[in-house]
Amino acid sequence: MAVLIESGSTFSRMSRAQYRALAAVRWSMFKNSLRSTQGAIEFGASSVAFIIYGLMGLGLAVGLGAGAFGAAVNDEWSMLSLILWVLFVIWQVVPVALASVQAQFDLEGLLRFPVGFGAYFLLHLIFGFIDVSTIIGALCCLGVWIGIVAARPSIFAWSAFSLGAFALFNVFLVRAIFAWIDRWLAQRRTREIVSVVFFLALLGLQFLNPAFRGQSTSHARHVTANELKTVDSIQRWLPPGLAASAISKSADHAVDKSAESLSVLGLYMLAAGGVLALRLRAEYRGENLGYAPSRKTEMRHRGRWLIDGSGPIAAVIEKELRTLMRALPLLYGIGAPLLMVFIFSGLYRSTGSMGVHAAPMALLISLGYALVGFTQIFYNNLGAEGPGIQLLFLSPTPIRTVILAKNLFYGVLYLVDAALVYVLASMRLGKPTPIALASTAAWLLFSLPVHFAAGNAFSLYMPYRIRLGRIGRQRGSQTSNVLSMLIQVGVLGVGAGVFALCAWFDRLWISVPIFLVLAVVAIIIWLRVLRLSDSLANRLRENLITTLAKTE
Amino acid sequence: MLAAMGTAAIQTHGLTRNFGALTAVQDVTLSIAPGQFFGFLGPNGAGKSTTIKMLTGLLEPSAGSIEILGQPFTAGSLELKRQIGVVPEGMALLGRLTAPEYLRFVGRMYCLDKDTTNRRTEELLEFMQLANESRKLVTDFSHGMQKKLALAAAVIHGPKVLFLDEPFEGVDAIAAGMLKSMLQGMISRGATIFLTTHVLEIVERLCSHVAIISQGRLVANGSLEELRAGVASSLPGTESGQRLTLEEIFLSIVGAGAVETQQELSWLS
Predict the structure, then answer these.
(1) Which DSSP category does B73 fall into?
(2) Residue pair B170/B144 in contact by the 8 Å Cβ criterion
(3) Is the N or C terminus of chain B more exposed, i.e. has fewer CB atoms within 10 Å?
(4) pTM of the full structure
(5) B139–A396 C-beta distance less than 8 A
(6) Are strands B63-68 and B22-32 parallel, antiparallel or unpaired?
(7) Alpha-carbon span B19 to B110, nearest angstrom
(8) For the complex shown, is ipTM > 0.95?
(9) Dihedrals φ, ψ of A416, to 5°?
């Protein structure tokens, strides 16, 4: 008896059966994940994380909704444009920030089944809809819509269409960006180009500082006002500006103009969808990303840039460096906080009433924030090994040596990052006093061993695999993420608390010995954890190997 | 059964491993003499990889003991690990390194000095025909190339005992021939090799001794001739002097029932 069902379009019987099968398999995977204690804890942590994301989304939605209400009531539609730009940035940036911490499903695995392209595309979109960033973005869109409708009930339909198109554009665009970045990361040459571009972009940020500083003169203000006008005329033809324009024109009863803006927005939406479809089509057809260099290239590169030194510690450090240079997600994690430091320092500069210790406090907070970029590296330091974890257990090198080498390498890397943060913060806020600098350095001496000690334990107890060729579609550990965040907040809180207290009594120098004493305690704990890591790793090796070497 | 001469290279007593209620390996006792090419066979899910994982320290036995080169072996036996080379089930490769980088890393992890590591790396890459691929990342290698690299990594430190879990899977015929001669060369220099594979022809050609595991239990162990004699005497239709192939021996011990039951799939009949 033939039981094959006909193949066909996106909504054919076969496609619908496949959707049901996929939903069932996701449900089974979820149920199976609850079988182990670690899975149950993971689910609990995911729930907490989703509640936090949900609250963040609600908060943003209320804020943006209130802004939209104000803009609609006061007829200040340029404000709505600004709100939609903010929403656009959140929608496109949040997924990258959350890429490593939210569990995602790799749909490429479906290609071995007879899945039609339409179904494959649709599934990508559906998984895009249940993404945290889309949920936050959709909540914000809803908030903005409620704000507008509360002020102008007559335009509820036009604003719904406009915001709906804007939301769809964002979903298409963010999925397209992820798909293309994954494509570039799949090949070594493009991966290295992306890494270089990323670093150049980070360096380029440094030049914003002098640009901002030049605003004090009236001439500069005049030039800036002209530039803003130019920017405004351009942004009107970009999706956030078009959505705002469609809504504002409908409020002015200029339906034709509104329809024009909405149509252009629709074109953007189709273009983003087309870019995504182009990439997915290539994936669907099974593109070959194989790459082999010419003999000439191979000869040119032989023997280049080999770090000298023998022994396992040097070997691990060299391996980590090489791996890092080929892993954009990790580089992004390390480099991205620099951007936030730039913004933070700007915020501090704009609040002149923070007192004399505002700048050094900002430096301390900035350094604490830069540590966020190292969370994955410190708290899951074996995650990038993949199947190579077996080698670490097979070789005669103790695991503690491997972990020590990783701690040393990433510690130095963090100090380089910290130096960049110092330069950036000094440029924006002025140089801190020697005492404040000494206090911050002493805090770093306390902070790093705490993170190493906790991170090493987390890496052994709660490992998760980091797929270095991808910036999205990672499977993180919510438990590890939530707990490591708490530790980071705690360490930063201790630093800020001691610093603020000493500054309050005008005895900032006292913070230096306090931090040094804490540093000694933290170093002792770190060394103790390192000593224990061999027996701990041997005890937990089955889970480590199963988790990190699994092929999925 | 095998009688070990002097100190065994690999010795296990009552090796057992449970996963919850499932007993994957039960009471396996083996003694493998130095210089032996030992084939460890079994159907899928019989416990071969679990046994290798226990023998190499990747998995803790639930019961029983292991001795390698006459010394008790645990996951913490670092000195013994210097004498062991392994191609594990997942190959243990680091995808973001190139082949030379990976081999240099492995050499140094096995405490070889830098010059030795570099020299052996180049030699191994040439031998494995991977020298032309030295700029390519391991993650971009084909499965067969990855196998060759894993095997190169397993021998870079000149181990006395080599554990190979399906080393020929995905390797082309030319490379397989070279690998076989390399392994035979190691045996002739006194190394011991513990091999699991589903390609019985390879075992028949290379191995002097064979053990068969089925459903976690050791069901046969001895030289090929000993196994032949044992099976021939128990098979009613076997003529005296008939030379049974390893496949026939294997099927008669663990697979006879499955072959005799000529099941058919309803939609393919």
Answers:
(1) -
(2) yes
(3) C
(4) 0.67
(5) no
(6) unpaired
(7) 31
(8) no
(9) -65, -45
